[in-house]
Specification:
The complex is a heterotetramer, with two copies of chain A (282 residues) and two copies of chain B (427 residues).
Chain A: H1 3-8, E1 13-19, H2 25-37, E2 43-46, H3 57-68, H4 73-82, E3 89-92, H5 95-100, H6 112-121, E4 125-127, H7 137-146, E5 149-154, H8 160-169, E6 174-177, H9 193-200, E7 207-210, H10 216-224, E8 229-232, H11 234-245, H12 250-281
Parallel strand pairs in A: 1-2, 1-8, 2-3, 3-4, 4-5, 5-6, 6-7, 7-8
Helix pairs in contact in A: 2-12, 3-11, 6-7, 10-12, 11-12
Chain B: E1 21-22, E2 25-26, H1 35-50, H2 56-66, E3 74-76, H3 78-84, E4 87-91, H4 102-115, E5 120-125, H5 129-140, E6 145-150, H6 151-156, H7 158-166, E7 170-174, H8 181-195, E8 199-201, H9 212-220, H10 222-235, E9 241-245, H11 250-256, E10 266-274, H12 291-294, E11 296-300, E12 303-307, H13 332-339, E13 343-349, H14 350-364, H15 370-382, E14 389-393, H16 402-410
Helix pairs in contact in B: 2-4, 4-5, 4-9, 5-7, 9-11, 10-11, 14-15
Bound molecules: pyridoxal-5'-phosphate (2 copies).
C-alpha cells in the first residue's frame, strides 16, 4: 500500500514543494501548513543540500537561506515531527545527505539509517534527483522495508527503453518533468507534457507533472493534458523569498501561499473537469 | 606540424570505455534529464576517442601537437638534482599553449563536440584556467562558447576573464549563492540540462559523471605516454617515482596513467594541505583541499568519490593558496587508486607550496603555477624517499599567479622569498 | 629530452664570424675600454658557437630543446587561411619558455658566458621581455644576474620586474635621465666598461657592436632552420613569403636567416608605424618605431645602422603601442638587407596592430604579444600580395600585454574589439 | 704642428672638461671661461649627444640639462666662437653628431662638413669616445686637411698590439683612462696609472690621464706617476650641478670652478716638481 499513490491518484492532485527551514524554522512551519490548508494532496519537503545541482536559481537561493538559518538533516526530521498536517510528505533531497546519515549497524547498508529515521518521523517517500535508477537498489530496499515510496523523475529526453527501469524502481507516483531544464517558472508549462504523458500511458502509476507551473490556468492545462497531478515549487518559493526580502509579516506571507495553493488546486480540479467529459465523449 | 609527428600516436588504451566505475567510485549521479546526453557522449567517446572513427584521434593528435605544442619536453633539472642527490626530471606541461596541461582536455572535448554535431560549448571555471583553455580551444575550432563563472571569482580573476573574452568567449557571471565555483558548476549543469540537445558541457577535470572521468583522463594521458618514452630514451629505465599535484586530479591521472601497471613506479598525488588538515564543522570550512588524504566517501557533482564534507554530508568549503586545487572533491579513479594503495596521497601546506614556488623559480628558472608548486614542496621535504629517479609534472606556469604569490609571500616569513619591498601595494 | 632530438642539429652556418660589417652597417662603435671584451667575445663566438668547441653548440641545442621547448610547432592557421584564401602558417615562438623568442638568445649568451669563465651576467631591459628571459636563463645555469631597468619602466612593468626578481635576478633601477631603456642601456654599458673582465653583457637583440648582431642572429636562426624543414615537410616547397615583426630585429632575422639565399621567398619586416610616420623635430619624438622604413643612417649603441634621429643626429624618442618594438634603431644586418632589396620593410599603425591582436585571439585562439600583432595587422591589409603560402612568426604571447591591450582598446574605436565594459578601471 | 700637443707637452698640463650649455648657454660660457682663468692648458668641450654611452651619471645628467636648455651642434659652434679664452679647445662628443652634420658637396665624405665648421669656429681637435680606430680614417683625413688633432683614448684593458694602431690614428695627446669604467670620481685616481704609462713610454706623444681625479692631491699623484697632463670632468661638473640645483648665483659658481681649477693646476705643478727631481736623481 502506498500513501503517495493514493494521494495522487484522484486525477487532480496538487503537490506543492517548499524548502524546509526557509527562511527560518518557524516561518517555514507556518508556510508548509498553509500549503495543506490551501488544498495540497501531498507535500514535497526540500531538505537543503549544499550543492543542489538540479535546482533553478529560485530554489537554490531558498536552500542557501535555509542552510544559513541552520537547517540540518536532524532538524529536518524534527520539523517533520513538528508539522501539523494530515497529507503525506515526501522528502526531496540529494543522495549524499541520505548516504551520510547516521551510524551503520553490523551488516547494515546505507542509506538505511536515513530511511529508518524518515519513516519514524512520519515521511512517506523520497525524491532524489541525482540518484539514477542504476544506483537506487539500496534505497529501494530500505524503502520497501519501511513501507516508503521512491518517486522517480522522468524527463522529456528519457529514452523509451529507460522508462521501464525508472518505473520499475519507483513507487508512489512518477514525477514527470514538463520540459528540459531545472526547476523554475520561466517556460510554458504544458510544453511537451502531452507527449510525455502519452509515452507513459502504458504504465499503471499516477503521473504528477512539474516544472514551470505557476498559475491556476497552467495547472488546469496540465491536468487537462492528462496528468494525474501537478507539482509546484518555484512559484511558491517566490512568495517566501519576496516576503523575506521585504520583511513581511509571516501571517501575511502564509496567507499568500495558501491563496496561491488554493488557486492551483482549483485549477487542477477545473482541468480534471475539462478532461473527464472529453474523455467520456470519446 | 611539430617534429612530434615522428612519435607514433598510440592513442589511449583502446579497450573499453568501462562502466564508469572505479571500485565503488564513479557512476553517474545526475538528474534524469542529463542521462541521454551522457549516454550519447559515452557512445561518441567510444567511437571517436577509443576507436578513432573518422580519424578523430589522429586529428586530435595533430592539433594538440601543432596548436598546443606537444610533445612537451622532459627536462633534467640539474640544480634540483644536485640539491637532492636524486635525478629530478621535469615534465614541462607549463609549455603547453595556454600555460597549463588544461588544453589537452579542453581541445579534445571541443573537437569531440564538433564531431558530435554540437553547436555550442559551455563550461564553468573557478580560477579561470579551465575557462581560458576552453575559450582558446573553441576559438581555434570556431565554436561559440559560454563560460559560467561566479561573480566573486570574476572580480578576483580579471586577467583570466579578459583572456576568455578576447578569445571570443562569453563569460556569464553567476550571481547565486556565494558566487564561486560551486554555483558556477550548478549553473552550467542547469544550462546543460536545458540545452543538452545542442550544447556540450566541457568538464575541466577527471570529475563528474561517466564518461567524463575516463575521457578526460584519456586526453591527459598523453602526458604519461610521453614521459614513459622520454625517460626510457634518457635513462633506459622507468622512474622510481612520479609526482603530480592533485586538485580534481586531471594532471595527476594524466601523469600517472601509463605507469599504473608498473608496480615499481611509486605514484604520489600531492594535495593542498592549505593552512590545516582539520575541518571546521561549525563554519563548514576545510582550510585545505586534501580530499584524498582526509576526505570521506560521498556523492558530489555526479560521481561517488572522496570528498570534504561535514558529518551530515554537507560539502564544506575547501581552501588552498592555489585556486586551481581549491575543490572539495577529487576524481573517482584517483580515489579508487588510493584505496587500492596504488597511489600515495600526500600533501603539503600553503607555506611549503610557496617555498616550492620560489625554489623552482630561483634554482631552475621556471616559475611554476602555485598548484604545481605543491609537488615541489613535497619533493623538498621527502626527496630522500623518492628513489634515484623522480619525474615531477610541472602542470602549469605561474604567470597567472604573480599577484597571489606576491600577496601570500608578503604575509609570511618564508625561508627563501626574495626581497619584495619594491612591490608593496601589489603588482 | 624532447622529441626534438630526432631533428639533426645543423647549427649556424659554420663559416666565419665575419668582420661585423653588413655593407657599411655594423662595426664596433664603442668606448676603447670595451674593445678587448668584444674581441674576447668574438673569439669565444667563433670557437664555441661556430666551431662547437667543447660541445658548446650541442649543449645549447639540448638545453634550448629541453628547457626552452624547441622545436616550436609550425601550425596551419585554418581560420585565417580561409579568411584570406591563402595558406597561413604560424611559427609558434610564443610557446617557447618565457613566452617569446627571446630565450633563444638569452640562453645562448648566458651559456657562452659560462664557457668563457665569466662569473656574472648583466643585461638591460625596457619592457622587461629580454630581462625576464635573461633572468630565467641565468637561474637555469646558476649564474648571478643583474638587470638594469629605467625607474619609469620599473613602475610601468611591475609584473615583469617581479618575474625577474623571483627568478633570483637583481633588478637595478636606473634613475638618470628619463628613466627608460636608453638610460638603462647606458648604465649597463657603464657597468660592463667597469667589470668587463668578469661580467658578460647579454644584449637583447641583433643590435650593438660586433659580434652581437651576428651572434644573436645565429642563436635565433633556429627559428628559420625549423620553419624551413617544417614547411618543406608539410608542403614540399618553400613558402612564398615570410613575415615577422621588427623592433631591434632579432626575431625578424631569426625568422629570415635560412631564407635569405632563396630569392623566391619574400621577406617582410613589419615595423611599428605607431600613430604617425612623421618625426616631430621640435619635441624630439618620432611617434613610431619604423627605423627601417623611415630611418636614416647613423651610429647608435655601438653600430652603424638605420635609426630615428633629428636633422642634427640626436636620437629621437620612438613610440609604439608595443613596448618591445619601441626602439629608435634596428639591427645592422637588417638595415643592409633592406638596402639590398632583399627584405621589404613595411609597417602598420597602432590601430591595425591592436586589431591584429584581437583577430588572432578571436579567430585562432592565440593571444599574441602586441609586437607580434603588427605582423597580423600587415597580413590583413596585404594578404592578396603575399602569395599562396605565407609563414608568420608568432614571436611572443600576449599575456604580458593584457593591461596595455585593454587600455589601448578602450581608447579606440576598433572594428573587432570585444565588449569591454566589465573591465572599466583596468584589470 | 699641433696646438694640443704643445699645450699638453709641458709635463703638468691641466685639461678640464665641461658639457657645453649646462645648465644654460650663458652660464656655461662663464664657467668655461673660469676654467681658463683657473689655469687650464686646454679645455675639452662636451657637445651633448642624446645617448652618451661612455659617460658616468654626473656627466650624463649634465648632458640632459644642456639638451633640455636647447644645445645643438650649431649652437655649440657659436658657443666656441663666443668664448673668450686663449687655450686650445677640444670638442668631445659622439660620432653620430659628427656624422650627421651639414650637407655634403660632390665627392665629399662625412664627417668633413663637421670638421670644417669646427676648424672655422676655432676648435683644435676632437675626442670621440665611440669612434674606434678601425673606423677613424675619414675623420683623420678631415683633421689632417684642417690641421686639427684627433685624440685617442687608451684604456687599461687595451692590448699592446692595439696601442700602436691607436697612436697611429691619433695626434695631439693620448687620453689615458686611469681605470676601467666610465667618467666619474668614485675610484682612487692613480689606479693602474703608472702601469698604463709604462706601457706607453715608448710612444713619443704626451699622455693626459683622466677618470676619477677630483683634488689637487690626486692631480699631483697622477703627474708624479708620469703623466704629462690630467683630465678632469666630473668633479667640475658636480659644481655646476650643485649650483643649478641650489639656484646659486652664476658668479659664485664660476668662482668655485675657478678655485677648483687652480687647485688642480697647482696640484699638477706640484706633482711635476716631485717627479722631476726624482727623475734627475735616477
Ligand atoms: C596549473 C594547474 N595544475 C593543476 C591544476 C589542478 O587541476 P587537476 O588536479 O584537475 O589537474 C590546475 C587547475 O586549475 C592548474 O591550473
Ligand atoms: C614578443 C616580441 N616580439 C618581438 C620583439 C621585438 O624584438 P626584436 O625585433 O629584437 O625581435 C619583442 C621585444 O621585446 C618581443 O617581446
Amino acid at each position: 500500500m502506498s500513501r503517495l499513490r493514493d494521494a495522487v491518484d484522484g486525477g487532480s492532485a496538487f503537490v506543492p514543494y517548499l524548502a524546509v527551514g526557509d527562511p527560518s524554522y518557524d516561518e517555514s512551519l507556518r508556510y508548509v501548513e498553509s500549503l495543506a490548508a490551501g488544498g495540497a494532496d501531498a507535500i514535497e519537503l526540500g531538505l537543503p543540500f549544499s550543492e543542489p545541482i538540479a535546482e533553478g536559481p529560485t530554489i537554490q537561493e531558498a536552500i542557501v537561506r535555509a542552510l544559513d538559518a541552520g537547517m540540518t538533516p536532524e532538524r529536518f526530521f524534527e520539523f517533520v515531527e513538528d508539522l501539523d498536517v494530515d497529507v503525506p510528505l515526501v522528502c526531496m533531497t540529494y543522495y549524499n545527505l541520505l548516504y551520510q546519515y547516521g551510524e551503520l549497524d553490523d551488516g547494515e547498508q546505507r542509506p538505511r539509517p536515513f530511511v529508518e529515521r524518515a519513516a519514524e518521523a512520519g515521511l512517506s517517500g523520497f525524491v532524489v534527483p541525482d540518484l539514477p535508477a542504476e544506483e537506487a537498489a539500496p534505497l529501494r530496499a530500505a524503502c520497501d522495508e519501511f513501507d516508503m515510496d521512491l518517486v522517480s523523475i522522468v524527463a522529456p529526453t528519457t529514452e523509451d527503453e529507460r522508462l521501464e527501469r525508472l518505473v520499475d524502481v519507483s513507487s508512489g507516483y512518477l514525477y514527470v518533468q514538463a520540459r528540459l531544464g531545472v526547476t523554475g517558472t520561466d517556460v510554458e508549462a504544458a510544453d511537451r507534457t502531452a507527449e510525455s504523458l502519452d509515452r507513459l500511458a502504458a504504465y499503471d502509476v499516477p503521473k504528477a507533472v512539474g516544472f514551470g507551473i505557476d498559475s491556476g490556468e497552467k495547472a488546469a492545462d496540465v491536468i487537462e493534458a492528462g496528468a494525474d497531478g501537478i507539482i509546484v515549487g518555484s512559484a511558491l518559493v517566490d512568495i517566501v523569498a519576496e516576503g523575506h526580502e521585504q520583511d513581511r509579516d509571516t501571517e501575511a506571507v502564509a496567507d499568500d501561499i495558501r491563496s496561491l495553493a488554493s488557486e492551483l488546486k482549483s485549477g487542477a480540479r477545473r482541468g480534471h473537469e475539462r478532461r473527464v467529459p472529453r474523455a467520456e465523449g470519446q | 606540424m611539430s617534429d612530434a609527428e615522428q612519435t607514433p600516436t598510440t592513442g589511449p588504451d583502446r579497450t573499453q570505455a568501462g562502466d564508469g566505475k572505479f571500485g565503488d567510485y564513479g557512476g553517474r549521479y545526475v538528474p534524469e534529464a542529463l542521462m541521454p546526453a551522457l549516454r550519447e557522449l559515452e557512445d561518441a567517446y567510444e567511437r571517436y576517442v577509443l576507436n578513432n572513427q573518422d580519424g578523430f584521434w589522429d586529428e586530435f593528435r595533430e592539433r594538440i601537437d601543432d596548436f598546443g605544442g606537444r610533445p612537451t619536453p622532459l627536462q633534467y633539472a640539474e640544480n634540483l638534482s644536485a640539491r637532492y642527490d636524486t635525478n629530478v626530471y621535469l615534465k614541462r606541461e607549463d609549455l603547453l599553449h595556454g600555460g597549463a596541461h588544461k588544453l589537452n582536455n579542453a581541445l579534445g572535448q571541443v573537437l569531440l563536440a564538433k564531431y558530435m554535431g554540437k553547436e555550442r560549448i559551455i563550461a564553468e571555471t573557478g580560477a579561470g584556467q579551465h575557462g581560458t583553455a576552453t575559450a582558446m580551444a573553441a576559438a581555434h575550432l570556431d565554436m561559440p562558447c559560454e563560460i559560467y563563472m561566479g561573480e566573486r571569482d570574476i572580480t578576483r580573476q580579471r586577467p583570466n576573464v579578459f583572456r576568455m573574452k578576447i578569445n571570443g568567449a562569453d563569460v556569464v557571471p553567476v550571481t547565486t549563492g556565494r558566487g564561486t565555483l560551486k554555483e558556477a558548476i550548478s549553473e552550467t549543469m542547469r544550462d546543460w540540462a536545458t540545452t543538452v540537445e545542442t550544447s556540450h558541457y566541457v568538464i575541466g577535470s577527471i570529475v563528474g559523471p561517466h564518461p567524463f572521468p575516463t575521457m578526460v583522463r584519456d586526453f591527459h594521458a598523453l602526458i604519461s605516454e610521453e614521459i614513459r618514452s622520454q625517460i626510457q630514451r634518457e635513462t633506459g629505465d622507468l622512474p622510481d617515482a612520479v609526482l603530480a599535484c592533485a586538485g580534481g586530479g586531471s594532471n595527476t591521472m594524466g601523469t600517472f596513467h601509463h605507469f599504473v601497471d608498473d608496480p615499481g613506479v611509486e605514484l604520489y598525488a600531492v594535495e593542498a594541505g592549505g593552512s590545516s588538515l582539520a575541518v571546521d564543522e561549525e563554519e563548514g570550512v576545510a582550510p585545505n583541499s586534501a580530499s584524498l588524504s582526509t576526505g570521506t566517501e560521498g556523492v558530489l557533482h555526479g560521481a561517488r568519490t572522496k570528498l570534504l564534507q561535514d558529518g551530515e554530508g554537507q560539502i564544506v568549503e575547501s581552501h588552498s593558496v592555489s585556486s586551481g586545487l581549491d575543490y572539495a572533491g577529487v576524481g573517482p579513479e584517483l580515489a579508487h587508486l588510493v584505496d587500492e594503495d596504488r597511489v600515495t596521497p600526500v600533501n603539503v601546506d600553503d607555506d611549503a607550496a610557496l617555498e616550492g614556488f620560489h625554489r623552482l623559480s630561483q634554482r631552475e628558472g621556471i616559475i611554476p603555477a602555485l598548484e604545481t608548486a605543491h609537488a615541489f614542496g613535497y619533493l623538498e621535504e621527502h626527496h630522500d624517499e623518492v628513489g634515484e629517479t623522480v619525474v615531477v609534472n610541472v602542470s602549469g606556469r605561474g604567470d597567472k599567479d604573480l599577484a597571489a604569490a606576491l600577496e601570500e609571500t608578503e604575509e609570511r616569513d618564508l625561508a627563501n622569498a626574495p626581497e619584495m619591498s619594491t612591490f608593496a601595494g601589489g603588482l
